[in-house]
UniProtKB/TrEMBL annotation:
SUPFAM superfamilies: PLP-dependent transferases. InterPro entries: DegT/StrS_aminotransferase, PyrdxlP-dep_Trfase, PyrdxlP-dep_Trfase_major, PyrdxlP-dep_Trfase_small. It is an enzyme of class 2 (transferase). Belongs to the DegT/DnrJ/EryC1 family. Keywords: Aminotransferase, Pyridoxal phosphate, Transferase. The keyword Transferase applies. Its EC number is 2.6.1.-. This is DegT/DnrJ/EryC1/StrS family aminotransferase. It holds the Pfam family DegT_DnrJ_EryC1. One of its GO terms (molecular function) is transaminase activity.
Length: 370
């Protein structure tokens, strides 16, 4: 048997009846596009965050594309973000013709180094996209300080941070808008693709609703600004409604798993476990440890049937598709160094204790810990 970083089948076994009922509810409703499931999920997701608006979209990448567009970002504008992220953060910026500008990350928690923001701002900067990586939040007070000094918009990339908190506030409630992904591996995952943008601003939300629907106001069927087809699927919306009710449980399970890793591996020489930065409540989308001999560790674990992954092995600025940005090796030294040391241990809410114990034992054996 192979142990993987993520699996949904144990969850499906537990929730199968509810999920199949969700599918049947939509199929029987007579509304396959938009309709009551999408509306209800949007209302419930907004309320869960204590916000007035959530717009469902087809995936997290388009949540960033449309979120930025609704915040007024367009071609030629510079958007400051990090290279230590899932490529879609940057692909989305590129998609609207904006220019991604990277700041390096902090060595300890691997999050945006907000001390570098000020120097990255130019006359063309329009927005900042802080990425709440792995399930913990960027220092948002520092982001907001720079944003308000320069009149910039802030779109939180919350694809990995459902239910994370920062000084008591939920991820997604601290920027001008926030983009979520419901890709199956995410903390709140659909059984397919999905995404949402939340905001407190009614105008931004109204723009989002048009942008995801070709650019049309639904009641008039007239395109104002040409948009996208980026609707959240009704079946996924109904599944997400069911799962949203269990989100607190999923996160509690993830935190318990993180606690068990810390207990089982905290004393292993050379292995650095993910820190929780003061003020943050981590929601553990990924459990990213570090080791200087990462490749040997991965290889050794593979021999024990444990297939781990690296998120992310290639910082976005080093990818050939972004060569035109002209950022050679050495331009983001902390990001580049971390990419060579990080590895993700299995993390999903239905990961059972036995499997987790096997992982702990194998890591200890491979690293020669008593
Ligand atoms: C998953 C992810 C996205 C993209 O979401 P999709 O639903 O896969 O399009 C964007 N940003 C980050 C940080 C992600 O982890």
């Amino acid at each position: 048997m192979t142990v993987r970083v993520w699996d949904y089948l144990p969850e499906y076994a537990d929730e199968r009846e509810d999920l199949l009922d969700a599918v049947d509810t939509v199929f029987s409703s007579g509304r396959l596009v938009f309709g009551p499931a999408v509306e209800a999920f949007e209302a419930e997701f907004a309320a869960w965050h204590g916000l007035p608006h959530a717009t469902g979209v087809d995936n997290g990448t388009n949540a960033i594309v449309l979120g930025l567009r609704a915040l007024g970002v367009g071609p030629g504008d510079e958007v400051i973000t990090v290279s230590n992220t899932a490529a879609p953060t940057v692909v989305a910026i590129d998609q609207i013709g904006a220019v991604p500008v990277f700041v390096d990350v902090r060595a300890d928690d691997q999050l945006m180094d907000t001390d570098l923001l000020e120097a990255a701002v130019t006359s063309r900067t329009r927005a900042i996209v802080p990425v709440h990586l792995y399930g913990q939040c960027v220092d948002m007070a520092a982001v907001q300080a720079v944003a308000s000094r320069h009149g910039l918009r802030v779109l939180e990339d919350c694809a990995q941070a459902h239910a994370a908190r920062h000084h008591g506030r939920l991820a997604g409630t601290m920027g001008d808008a926030a983009a979520f992904s419901f890709y199956p591996t995410k903390i709140l995952g659909a059984y397919g693709d999905g995404g949402a943008v939340v905001t407190a601003e009614p105008d931004v939300d109204a723009d989002l609703r048009r942008l995801r629907y070709y650019g049309m106001a639904q009641q008039y069927y007239v395109v104002q600004t040409p948009g996208h087809n980026a609707r959240l699927d009704a079946v996924q919306a109904e599944i997400l409604r069911r799962k949203l009710r269990r989100l607190d449980d999923y996160v509690a399970a993830r935190r318990a798993i993180a606690g068990r890793y810390a207990e089982g591996l905290g004393d292993v020489d050379g292995l650095t476990l993910p820190p929780v930065t003061p003020g943050n409540e981590h929601s553990y989308y990924l459990y990213v440890a570090r080791h200087p001999e990462r490749e040997e560790l991965l290889e050794g674990l593979r021999a024990h049937g444990i297939e781990l992954t690296v998120s992310y092995r290639w910082p976005v600025h080093t990818m050939s598709g972004f060569a035109h940005l002209g950022l050679g090796p050495g331009s983001l030294p902390v990001t580049e160094r971390l990419a060579g040391e990080i590895l993700s241990l299995p993390m999903y809410s239905s990961l059972d204790k036995g499997t987790q114990d096997d992982v702990v034992a194998a890591v200890r054996t491979v690293l020669g810990a008593p």
